[in-house]
Design brief:
Largest sheet: none
Number of strands: 0
Number of helices: 9
Oligomer: single chain
Structural class: mainly alpha
Length: about 200
């Protein structure tokens, strides 16, 4: 496959080099094209071609770089999610296969007991977290409760900002309200939306 692609590429390069470009560049149609451009105010055709060529090359380069970064970012996200899924499924499947599992369970029960005692002492207990049987499930439950709380607080903040903008008769107050809601989910977005 690679050799056939290199053969096709070599054939294309040879075909482009074999063309008699002077016949096209110095022909009657090109002279008419130069005359039409001169009527529109383009006096230096070569400078215009160089300028347009550099613009096309820059635009193509930026497009290629943007596509490459997008593909790379998608690949990294896929690897990250795949890694999390594999770690989670491997830890779920290997409950009884490791000899240190009993020691780990004892340590985890101590950690859970200490966290429950501190949660009861501080009044920060969560009913979802106590129902979760494994550490990963507890982390998921805590993340879920965080996201739900973040959603409702962001909604409250956006409604308050929207009401203030409506009372102050700010143009496009609905868009600013939606923007304040969305920015609350980003790092430093909450302070930006408040400003």
């Amino acid at each position: 496959l690679l050799s056939s692609l290199s053969f096709v590429a070599a054939w294309v390069v040879h075909s482009v080099e074999a063309v008699d470009w002077n016949r096209y560049l110095n022909g009657q149609r090109m002279a008419a094209f130069h005359e039409t451009l001169a009527n529109f105010g383009v006096s230096d055709f070569d400078a215009m071609v160089k300028s347009a060529g550099s613009y096309v090359i820059q635009a193509a380069g930026m497009s290629i770089i943007g596509s490459f970064v997008s593909v790379l970012w998608s690949f990294l996200l896929m690897v990250l999610f795949l890694g999390f899924f594999l770690i989670d499924s491997a830890s779920y499947r290997s409950l009884g296969k490791e000899p240190w599992r009993r020691q780990q369970r004892r340590l985890m029960s101590k950690i859970v007991r200490i966290s429950r005692d501190s949660s009861a002492l501080l009044g920060t207990g969560d009913s979802l977290v106590q129902c979760a049987p494994t550490l990963m499930a507890k982390m998921r439950a805590q993340m879920k409760s965080f996201i739900v709380a973040k959603f409702y607080l962001s909604l409250l903040k956006a409604v308050l900002i929207g009401c203030m903008f409506f009372l102050l008769k700010v143009d496009l107050w609905v868009i600013w309200t939606i923007l304040a809601f969305v920015l609350n989910f980003m790092p430093l977005g909450s302070s930006i939306s408040t400003l």
